[in-house]
Amino acid sequence: MVLPPAPIGMLRTLCGEGGRPAGTGTVMGMPLVPVDPAVVPRADETAADRGLRLVRTLVRSSCFDENHSADPLLHGFLFLDQDRVRLYLRADGPPGVTAAGLRTTGALTALIAALPSLVRGEVERMVTDAGDPHCARVLDVTFW
């Protein structure tokens, strides 16, 4: 079984250092490169991979909302460092955009499930960040 992050790691291994794997033919004009997942080592996951997986998860959950009533609604994101991302969310309740700072590693499933309630209900734990013009308040859930 090949899990979703594995093909990215295999491609990084095959194309490392700007190389291009040798193809054995073409399919619809593209090179065909046979790969045995049991043999090709996978490059390590990067911090960007983890952060973008988190963002994709949040976007997917709101994309399939037929009523377009996702709350909170993801407005954007900013990578703060190798393990932290700031999500910009608009939620019913507090006016303006709320930024949530969180880690891209650890038990994210529970945090993603709790994020809507935290953004709407933890107003007393939020602080202002004069250095961030994109939000009205920041909720730090990096150690949640």
Characterization of this structure:
This protein is α+β, with helices and mostly antiparallel strands. It has helices spanning 5-14, 47-63, 108-121, and strands spanning 25-27, 30-32, 73-81, 84-90, 97-103, 137-140. Strand 1 (25-27) and strand 2 form a beta hairpin. It is elongated, with a radius of gyration of 19 Å. The model has no long low-confidence stretch (mean pLDDT 81).
Question: How would you concisely characterize the structure shown here?
Answer:
The chain is of the alpha+beta class and 144 residues long. It has three helices and six strands.
Outline, from the CA principal axes? Answer: elongated
Describe the oligomeric state of these chains in a short phrase.
single chain
Distance between the termini: 32 Å
Quantity of strands, as a count: 6
The helix count comes to 3
Side by side, the strands of the main sheet go 3-4-5-6
SSE order, one letter for each helix or strand: HEEHEEEHE
Low-confidence region ranges: none
Percent of residues in helices comes to 25-40%
Strand content: 15-25%
Decide which structural class fits the backbone: alpha+beta
Largest sheet: 4 strands, mixed
Rg over C-alpha atoms, rounded to the nearest angstrom: 19 Å
